[in-house]
Specification:
109 residues, single chain, 2 strands, mainly alpha
């Protein structure tokens, strides 16, 4: 994923449009896409801020909420297979996907 445009450019684009120029004129003037200018104007009108949104996934995983229970449940066994863990998760209503060829869960839905 690319880096967000600098806040200075974002502010200059919005100021240019607010001076009475069209979004397309701003795009040509700053050599940016019309979509970028449109998005900046929408962002400025809706939030009043030009700060870029955080990029990437939120911290944690789909199992984070169940981590304590999984640790306690697995520690109660000497050995446990992934298939057994997948079955137990499914019984608790936690959606799992199983790889048919490998025979174990590959992730959570």
């Amino acid at each position: 994923m690319g880096k967000p445009h600098p806040i200075e450019l974002r502010a200059r684009v919005v100021a240019f449009v607010e001076e009475g120029n069209s979004n397309r004129e701003a795009a040509r003037h700053f050599r940016e896409s019309p979509r970028f200018v449109n998005n900046m104007m929408i962002l400025h009108r809706s939030s009043g801020s030009l700060a870029p949104a955080r990029q990437s996934h939120p911290p944690g995983s789909k199992l984070s909420a169940h981590g304590q229970w999984i640790s306690e449940w697995v520690s109660g066994f000497g050995e446990i297979t992934l298939e057994e863990l997948c079955v137990e998760l499914a019984e608790r209503g936690i959606e799992v996907h199983r790889a048919r060829s490998a025979g174990f869960c590959t992730g959570l839905g």
